[in-house]
Task: inverse folding
């Protein structure tokens, strides 16, 4: 199924993507005393525009397509624009001290942005 409003235009715009790097250093947020490893990780973040009309390379959800049309045609601007947000995320395994100083190895889901989309 294709949507007639999902048109591919070729112009220079800053589209939704996850090329932005966000390095988390646990010492920067005061967690160095309980997180053993890793000391840093690359979390990434989503950035860019989700402007009407949404393009295929923005990987928009069906909801985003409809919301984008609604936003573009809403003269009172009550409908918010579509947002560039994480679509898929990866886990991160941490080695840390728990509240009674046991060493724990645990995998936390949804810690690293692996792809972004207009949602």
Result:
């Amino acid at each position: 199924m294709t949507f007639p409003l999902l048109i591919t235009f070729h112009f220079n715009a800053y589209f939704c993507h996850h090329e932005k790097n966000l390095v988390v250093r646990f010492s920067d947020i005061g967690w160095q005393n309980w997180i053993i490893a890793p000391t840093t990780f690359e979390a990434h973040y989503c950035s860019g525009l989700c402007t009407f009309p949404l393009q295929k390379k923005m990987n928009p959800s069906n909801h985003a397509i409809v919301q984008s049309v609604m936003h573009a045609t809403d003269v009172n601007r009550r409908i918010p624009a579509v947002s560039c947000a994480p679509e898929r995320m990866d886990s991160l395994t941490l080695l840390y001290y728990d509240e009674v100083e046991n060493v724990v190895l645990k995998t936390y889901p949804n810690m690293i942005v692996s792809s972004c989309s207009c949602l």
About this structure: The longest strand covers residues 103-118. The beta strands are 17-20, 23-25, 35-37, 40-42, 45-47, 84-97, 103-118.
